[in-house]
Amino acid sequence: MTILLWGLVRDQPMAAVLARLRRLGAPVRFLDQRHVLDTTVRVEAGRFSRTCVTVAGEEFDLDRVHAAYLRPHDSTKLAALRDRAPSSAEWRHAAEVDQVLNAWSDRTGAYVLNRPEAAAGNASKPYQLRAVAAAGFLVPATLVTNDPDQAGAFLREHGEVIVKSTSGVRSRVRRVGPADAARLADVATCPTQFQRRVPGTDVRVHVVGAEVFAVEVDSDADDYRYARVLGHREPVLTAIDLPADVSARCLDLAKRLGLPVAGIDLRRTPDGEWYCFEVNPSPGFTYYEAKTGQPVAAAVAGLLAAAALCKEPSP
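-> structure tokens emitted (315 positions)
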């Protein structure tokens, strides 16, 4: 069996999974994006197509891959391309390598965590929320608009709302109240997502195959990821066991989205209701693992190794 990892070795989740796989003695090929300018991908069409990657003169047949873990970054934004124009041969080469490898990742018969096609749903939070509701979670009242009047009416109706990105681009979650009404004119320049603020306790859930790892987050910040930057106390993270029905909903949600590995953001209200805000298809689980000791990286590595044993490579 062969397990492929594609991404950056300095990326903490990638490094953690790589270390776990090596500890298991699994045969791993790591495709490091730092060497994208020394990487070429060749696709041979015919009765039996082949896809081969060559890095610094060493060729590797992707059709021999049994399982793959993907955390790729945009190669055109790496340090090696920082001073290159989009019209340059180097920039185009990096973009083409990403494009071909993404296409391979969606079409290969290998077990992939996670396929780009499935992860693409994160680009539209409103689309993702449909799957969230279908899985049985509560969803806050939500408005996506670039109409300041609609935004103002939504704010007056709910009193306090949360504003966030509608796409998969990371953004800082912020609270908006009546004092911010004058700033709502800014939404005319970009569709913005508003949600009714839901009081309660944040719970981050990582789904890895059939395993569920839940972490309760004690923080007084609207976005605990930036608590220290915003002058709040450091969040306190505690591993917890979810109620059986909530755990089942998390597994169902990940399955609906086609994500064997997923980071799910929940909030438990004081009344015991469970809301879901979004699902991350490439979760940075090492932050939670370091705080709680939950073996998420080991679970991802185990899932890859088990899948690779059951998969037959392409002919």
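The chain has a mean pLDDT of 91.
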